Amino acid sequence: MNVLVINAGSSSLKYQLLDVDTGEVFAKGNCERIGIDGSFIGHQERGGEKERLVVDLPDHKTAVKHVFEIIDGLGLPVDGIGHRVVQGGWYFPESAVVDDEVLAKVREVAPLAPLHNYAEADVVEICRELYPSLGNVIVPDTAFHYNMPERAWRYALPRDVVDSLHIRKYGAHGTSHRFIWRAVQEFTDGACHKLVSCHLGSGASLCAVEDGHSVETTMGLTPLDGLIMGTRCGTLDPATVFYLQREGGYTVDEVDTMMNKQSGLLALSGISSDSRDIEEAAAKGDEKAEVALDMFAYRSAQLVLEMAEAMEGFDTIAFSAGIGENSDDARARICAKLGWMGVRIDDAKNAVRSDEVREISAADSAIRVLVVPTNEELMIALDVQEKLA
Questions:
Q1: How many domains does the chain have?
Q2: Catalytic residue among 141, 225, 328, 329
Q3: Which residues pair with 7 in a beta bridge?
Q4: The domain spanning residue 244 has which CATH number?
Q5: Is residue 83 helix, strand or coil?
Q6: How far apart are CA 95 and CA 135, in angstroms?
Q7: 249: exposed, middle or buried (C-beta count within 10 Å: 0-12, 13-18, 19+)?
Q8: CA dist., res. 155 & res. 191, Å (int)
Q9: What is the pLDDT at residue 12?
Q10: pTM of this structure
């Protein structure tokens, strides 16, 4: 079954056509600067050279049309479309086949993720309009965390406020954490029961996965909570918001922008939001860069233990996403901070770069340590196959 996976943002649209059964990626690309001057499509087929196609993309409908023209040129059938939806809200404990009711619910919960859900809903509607014969499936990033225990998802706020405004921990990166669990199970032949899944990228979260179920995660009502990230501050005292407004004179929108786009590793290092740039600077003796890397590892190790508490222990930790997969320095720092509890890595294994699942634990490690390249697109495609079967 060939599935077209679409991930729409406010001014971008990523796509990938893949065979669910073999995992082969026929084509992938991204439409950038939708509705902005200088729009283009970056396109790649079967792992070949990347092309840059300069096209006018005034809106998402035009972008979708261009994507299907490109896909049609491959001469391959499209059997279904999977849509990444950032926020499923209080409606979706799992992926869902799109009908009018499902689409209305995606729009209803959009205030929880306004930069993403509105665009995603628009693209789903466009696909239904232009290609009515194709089934569409939404795959919410929050669905995996929907059935966490109440002690994990409920906030200690007045119940009438929480219930009327649907305030709870929704989490994020659920599709990635699901894939990581699946890959770990395959790699360990089912020997893993309590996994701390570490999706460490520009956006970062941890998830406690016990026998295939998310029981705790680090992101909250929004993806701002939890770990220090590329430009997001992560967890801090909520009263900081009041203080910035009262004493600093910042508006709500300015605080929102500060905490989401001007904080995190960018603010700590004063260099970049990209850990590669920060690692390079730290290696040259930059003190702020070193502090940024140390704080990232410190907070990560702290929250690994929060995830462990939710499961009363853990047998495996898996590193994934941009930093988790590619930074041996970040993995080494985090594992060193967990050394007191018996976590050990093999330095030579940790230094290896690979696209395969691999173990980097030392022989005497009390916890299995893995590196797992994530594949959210394949996970979405698998859901499409299941729902449209």
A1: 2
A2: 141
A3: 14
A4: 3.30.420.40
A5: strand
A6: 13
A7: exposed
A8: 34
A9: 81
A10: 0.91
60-72 and 117-130 helices, crossing angle to 10°: 50
Token code pair at residue 133: 């014969």
37 annotated active-site: no
Q: Could you write out the DSSP letters of every residue in 124-168?
A: HHHHHHH-TTS-EEEEETTGGGTT--HHHH--SS-HHHHHHHT-S
Residue 195 token pair: 């996994």
pLDDT of residue 114: 79
Name 242's Cβ contacts closer than 8 Å, sequence gap at least 6: none
362 and 275 share a domain?
Answer: yes
Asked if the model's pLDDT at residue 91 lies above 90, the reply is yes
Q: Are residues 123 and 221 in the same domain?
A: no
Integer angstrom CA distances of residue 352 from 24, 179, 327, 349, 358: 24, 22, 10, 5, 9
Q: Residue 63: is it exposed, middle or buried by C-beta count within 10 angstroms (0-12/13-18/19+)?
A: buried
Domain that holds residue 346: 189-371
In a domain, 379, yes or no: no
In angstroms, how far is the first alpha carbon of the chain from the final one? 10
Q: Residue 102's CB: how many other CB atoms inside 10 A?
A: 18
Which pLDDT value is given to residue 113?
82
Q: Please give the distance of CA 263 from its chain centroid, rounded to a whole number.
A: 18
- Tell me phi and psi for residue 262, to 5 degrees: -125, 10
